Amino acid sequence: MEQAVIAALLLVGLVIGAGVGASYARAKRGWKDYQTVRTSVPGARRSAWSAIRAVAVKAAVIALLLVGAAAYAASGSDQERAGPAPTVTPSPSHRPGR
Question: What is the pLDDT of the chain when averaged over all its residues?
């Protein structure tokens, strides 16, 4: 009977020890992953902001070009759009110099 109790206690201890050991290993891996990510975040943040800045600069340049093109089209000179100047022909009843 003593051997059965000792075997049961060993089995319970083994199950509890395996569970605690697996939990400890998982927590240790999680902590190590957290530390790795924590040290890489500033670099990732810098690279993300530089990518956003590059896109914003390109969008601003395109917007300025579009606004400039619209302003140029709206302010085109009237001479380019006007046809030839009308010619005035004197009527037969109207004589110059009178």
Answer: 86
